[in-house]
Design goal:
Structural class: alpha/beta
Radius of gyration: 18 Å
Bound molecules: cytidine-5'-monophosphate
Largest sheet: 8 strands, mixed
Order of helices and strands: EEEHEHEHEHEEEEEHHEHH
CATH class: Alpha Beta
Number of helices: 8
Shape: globular
Length: 248
């Protein structure tokens, strides 16, 4: 089975307040995009990665990936996230026509553990047409009206925080993108097809890096991962790779 991963990274990322697109903001000296693509390839299940970059940064992004030793194609993104995924999908299917599983990953979730990536691929290969990693809600959530007045308190136990990569069998994702609709995630498009979306456990490290505060947390995640790799290579040679895979 051929698994390809699409990384829509063509947004401007204003919320981080940086002068560069969010995917190019650095954590521990490397752009989020590099961390994200390396994570996908290191999971050991992805055959090909296609990144959607801002049109004026396609060549620079391709050079960045090549300089980091990462094999990935870069295409120009579209007007919104859905369009960028659609363009990357079309490119991927041109390069690897026998693609059976497509992952759609957010560069902002650059530190998703390999174990989560593999769990998503496994679930699609086991027959799910769409799979998303999720976490339970720690906070109570309120629905408010236009004036900020609370109108409802949804049952927290039935709510989930959604992460990426989201995984799809190829035909399902192609059908979802043929809807000519837009959504904040690809599973949202698949839901409109009436296709069930399965879930697997997500991970705190797969957080979306959106604000300067998140960047501080991301630095801590990388530091923690590096430290446990070093410690375990002294304690138990061979355990370091396992630690990296588990995101510990
Ligand atoms: O802005 P937001 O955080 O919702 O963007 C989600 C993801 O979609 C980001 O990784 C962003 O780079 C990507 N995106 C894109 N093409 C666009 C707009 C956003 O690939 N035109």
């Amino acid at each position: 089975m051929s698994v390809v991963a699409l990384v829509p990274a063509a947004g401007r990322g204003e919320r981080l307040g940086a002068a560069v697109p969010k995917a190019l903001v650095e954590v521990r000296g490397e752009p989020l995009l590099i961390h994200a693509v390396r994570g996908l390839l290191d999971a050991g299940r992805v055959r090909h990665v296609v990144v959607a970059a801002p049109a004026n940064l396609v060549d620079a992004t391709a050079k960045l990936l090549a300089d980091a030793g990462l094999a990935a194609d870069v295409v120009a993104g579209g007007a919104d996230r859905t369009a960028s995924v659609g363009l990357a999908l079309r490119h991927a299917l041109g390069v690897i026509p026998d693609t059976s599983v497509v992952l759609v990953h957010d560069a902002a979730r650059a530190f998703t553990p390999p174990s989560v990536i593999r769990a998503v691929v496994d679930a699609v290969e086991a027959g799910a047409r769409a799979v998303i990693p999720v976490l339970p809600m720690a906070d109570t959530v309120k629905q408010v009206d236009a004036d900020g007045v609370v109108v409802a308190t949804p049952d927290r136990s039935a709510l989930r925080i959604v992460q990426t990569p989201q995984g799809f069998d190829t035909a399902t994702l192609v059908a979802a993108h043929a809807l000519a609709d837009s959504a904040t995630d690809d599973a949202g498009l698949v839901e409109r097809l009436g296709v069930p979306v399965a879930t697997v456990p997500g991970h705190a490290y797969a957080m979306k890096i959106t604000t300067p505060f998140d960047l501080v947390v991301a630095e801590a995640i990388v530091l923690q991962t590096e430290r446990s790799l070093v410690e375990q290579s002294y304690d138990r040679p061979g355990a370091a790779r396992q630690a990296a895979e588990e995101g510990s």
